[in-house]
Amino acid sequence: MAEVALHAEHLQKRFGGLVAVSDVSIEVHVGEIHAVIGPNGAGKSTLINLLSGELFVSAGRISLGDTDVTTFAPDRRARAGLGRAYQKTTLFSKFSVQENVRLAAQAHSSAPLRMFGSIQADVECHRRTSEAIDRVGLTGRSQVIADRLSHGEQRQLEIAMVLATDPRIVLLDEPLAGMGQSEARAIIALIASLKADRAVLLVEHDMDAVFELADRLTVMQDGTVVATGLPQEVRAHPLVRSAYLGVHGDDT
């Protein structure tokens, strides 16, 4: 059985009288890409914010591995092994690719603000920086200032910054948004490679990309889970076919 990177059970989030997420459970394993799909307003973004710690649950429990992180703030969840890339890139626009990734690596170190750390710590930070940049395919662009990168390259950089923190699970919120076909193909290939040594939770509206990438799918509607399982199982689910994929009756 694959290692469980993230386990959330019976999550609920209320905003006054509005229930944005209701009784949602999800489990993501190392070595898999688990996609969450659903129409606008389904609760996908709220779920991602609950898992990352941007919002706290009204009820339910969230674990990373064996660690209960339900009450952890985002920085503590990051140190526990969770990395998140946002829908809108969050980069230091006037810093180079290398400087952006190094800052992310330093933030994850045991003493991120230490002015005079050990040589060993500096070597480790440099190693993680170089490996993350190479992993996303930006080695030849490491000295380019972030705001001079293309949209696709900026997404690659943001993923490199996440990888530099050595996460056990990566949350990706609409990583293909606003991309042309060639850039999207590069990001799809990059996302597919991430599951080799970690878990990936993906929220994405591009259904072709979702069904190409996902090992498992969870479908949300009105804050609840309406289906979860293997892509072929979800695709065949009557409610999903009629309400989300636009297929009716015996149509294929």
Description:
The mean pLDDT is 90. The chain is built from nine helices and ten strands. A six-stranded mixed β-sheet has the order 6-7-8-3-9-10, with helices on both faces. The protein has two domains: 1-81 and 168-252, Rossmann fold; 94-166, no CATH class. A hairpin with a 2-residue loop joins strand 1 (4-15) and strand 2. The protein is 35% helix and 25% strand. It has 252 residues and is of the alpha/beta class.
The total count of strands amounts to 10
At CATH level 3, the topology of the largest domain is: Rossmann fold
Number of helices: 9
Pairing-aware structural class of the strands and helices?
alpha/beta
Low-confidence stretches: none
**Would you state the CATH class of the largest domain?**
Alpha Beta
Task: Write down the domain tally.
Answer: 2
Descriptive keywords:
2 domains, 252 residues, 25% strand, alpha/beta, four-stranded antiparallel beta sheet, 35% helix, single chain, Rossmann fold, globular
Question: Quick summary of this structure?
Answer:
With 252 residues, the protein is an alpha/beta fold. 35% of the residues lie in helices and 25% in strands. The protein folds into two domains: 1-81 and 168-252, Rossmann fold; 94-166, no CATH class.
